[in-house]
Fold Glutamate--tRNA ligase.
Amino acid sequence: MNNIRLRFAPSPTGFLHIGNLRTALFGYLIAQNLGGKFILRIEDTDQKREVNDAVDKLLNVLSWVGIDFDEGPHRGGPFAPYTQTERLDIYQKYIQELLDKDLAYHCFCSAERLEEMREKQTANKLAPRYDRACRDLTREEVEKRIAQGEKYVIRQKMPLTGEIKVYDELRGEISFQASDLEDHVLIKSDGVPTYQFANIVDDHLMEITHVTRGDEWLPSYPKNILLYQAFGWTPPKFIHFPLILNQTGGKLSKRQGDVFVEDYQAKGYLPEALINFCVLLGWHSKDGKEIYSLKELLTAFDIKGLGSSPAIFDSEKLDFFNGYYIRQKTLTELADLCRPYLSDISVDQTYLEKVVGLAQDRMKKLSDINELTDFIFAEKLDYDSSLLIWKALTAEEVKSNLSELKGIMEKVEDINWNKTYLEAQIIEYIKTNDKKVGDYLWPLRVALTGLKNSPGPFEVADTLGKEQSLNRIELALSKK
RNA sequence: GGCCUCUUCGUCUAACGGUUAGGACACAUGGUUCUCAACCAUGCAACAGGAGUUCGACUCUCCUAGAGGCUACCA
């Protein structure tokens, strides 16, 4: 047993962004790989963005993909509570410490003043930054204004000069100029801390050893380090994962399509595919293997395989993985997975397994099941009789071939009505009469499916059953 | 505007400073096949540009360019 501890710390905003899934996944894998603990902490300090049931939903999706936690709001733990709005008194205590050390200060500037200030700065091509107007107020003045009921925030007092060096596990040392840092807000005017403050306090208190987060946090890293220094705490290790980009290289956002795990779940992507696909965005194994189950990743994952450059989300590769994992399913599993996507939910289980078997090799996602197997459930096939004609055959030849096959199939006993038996009978007939396979099978297949492209005639006939198959052949024969 | 990060096939990515720059997806062709899919085989395709360091640079340094991120009392 060691004391490695990592956390996933999302804001409960409703859905799980695909980028967050990967952040959670990497964190989970590192924790598992190092034999440590994985903790869920809910960062709900922005009440404006609060969404009902968000935590339950989040937990559902994460458990769907197979990620679970050792500690968190749903199961407690030695560092409870794990929801930031339940920890407000803790932050009060720590901000007071900073105030006492003169490393933070009250700021009474109004939102309007700040906005005006920023507008002026940008107009003058200056970096928009708080002008530190309240940084050096006297203690008496601060007390007086608080007593008068003035609203205030608490800001971090940054050093004015010098260099701040930080270390990222993937990129090495990065240095920032203190003069580029803003005195950012630690406690908002409603007394609730910002991410920047709550996050650091909680990571320390919860004894997090490796902070894993997205690349978008790199710019605030020096401020975080300064906060650790202000408290006299030893910072954990930091790993900033490169971002996932959209097809055009921009930020993955709602506007260009699906960005939430729930979207993919609804469309019929399997958790195995999502996990396998996501883990390969910025990570590779030593031996170049690319097919990985979550279970295998638990031991195979290695932080050394992480890269530092952003990755474009390629849905075609996701489709490949999804098709691959669909093909790995047993018919029973696949039937269960497909059932919610069927318009007719009352389909018999064994029948459904046969139907699903026809589509398995052709599916990219579960929702494809409808389009792929519509022809099976169709009351009456609707297709042009010209489709029945194979290559140079005439319409008469096609009908004659179909009649011959009908004759053979009529004689097949119900008990023998299966793919293997039908295939053996029909192929034997064709061979012994020295005919071409295509001249018979194409018309038969079209008669049974009404489609240009479809699964083979024997498996379709098997699924359809004797009566339905013969009806469909009869329909083909009656076509003009 | 400022700061930070990133840069190998279309995409995801390999390559102790020495390889015909490898694999996967996609694509193409062939095989298998009545069609499609699946499967198998083959092929196509990349070191952003420029200086250095070095006997030798995809790999180290610097510059340029491009891309992305951050620049809120959002996370």
User: Anything to note?
Assistant: Chain A has a mean pLDDT of 94. The CA atoms of residues 200 and 224 of chain A lie 7 Å apart. DSSP finds 19 helices and eleven strands in chain A. Chain A has four domains: 5-84+244-312, 87-241, 329-377, 385-478.
